[in-house]
From TrEMBL:
It holds the Pfam family Claudin_2. It is a multi-pass membrane protein. This is Transmembrane protein 182. It comes from the Eukaryota. InterPro entries: PMP22/EMP/MP20/Claudin, TMEM182. It comes from Clupea harengus.
Length: 245
């Protein structure tokens, strides 16, 4: 009876972990940001954003971004009075069809070759590369753990239970590293202030705001449930092994 209850909760935690991880991995809202450069003379001058050039006018002086593992997307819109109203622009139903997206696999936003020297740009790419690899390993480990445990259930194989639990713990470890690296990139490294300083040299009225998106929020949830599921499945595998002796 106790083993059945443990299996139920372990399976529930594993399913929640896999769902949260896949949503975090598959949605491009790890970072949400907006930047604006009002033109004092309302001339509608093109403003370079990183290595993107977006034509702006007086009616829509703000560029909104959201970025994840796969895509970096941008669209123009009006800057609202409150941050809450600005964040609402990132919901699927509120975004315009005219937004532009580019691959973000190794794009170290907001670093660009134009705004930084080659050494800084290469270092940012390497950092982003490790972040991407850790993300892929974490997602692959969680998905593989799910398949192993589905196979383990009808046969009560303690080896598969232990392997699935170990993979969930590996997934939690790598996704925790991904989350910490993302926080360090945004809060501790000097890349964002350097980008702001570079833009201010071209636009004295330049303003920028960066926030964590819901894709980022799902990553710690996936880590938490991965840890619970991994520990439970390891204990279940040990219990099944003892019963077989």
């Amino acid at each position: 009876m106790k083993l059945s209850v443990a299996l139920f909760f372990a399976g529930l935690f594993g399913a929640l972990a896999t769902l949260a991880i896949l949503l975090s991995f598959g949605t491009d809202y790890w970072l949400v940001a907006y930047e604006t450069c009002p033109d004092p003379e309302n001339t509608g001058t093109p403003v370079e954003q990183g290595d993107m050039v977006v034509n702006q006018d007086a009616a829509d002086p703000t560029v909104f971004y959201h970025e994840g593992f796969f895509w970096l997307c941008s669209f123009t819109g009006r800057l609202e009075a409150s941050d809450g109203e600005n964040l609402l622009k990132f919901w699927f139903t509120n975004q315009p069809h005219s937004k532009e997206c580019k691959h973000a696999y190794l794009f170290p936003y907001p670093v660009s070759e134009a705004s930084h020297n080659a050494t800084t740009y290469d270092s940012a790419i390497i950092y982003r590369g490790f972040w991407s690899v850790f993300m892929l390993v974490g997602v692959a480990a969680a998905v593989l753990a799910g398949f192993l445990l589905i196979c383990a259930a009808p046969f009560s194989s303690h080896c598969l239970y232990k392997a699935g639990g170990g993979l969930y713990l590996i997934s939690a470890l790598f996704l925790l590293a991904v989350t910490i690296m993302f926080v360090i990139w945004k809060e501790a490294l000097d890349l964002v202030p350097m980008y702001k300083e570079y833009q201010i040299t071209k636009c004295p009225l330049f303003e920028m705001s960066m926030d964590y998106g819901f894709s980022f929020m799902l990553a710690p949830v996936g880590v938490f449930f991965c840890l619970l599921a991994g520990l439970l499945f390891l204990l279940i595998g040990r219990s099944v092994q003892m019963q077989c002796r």
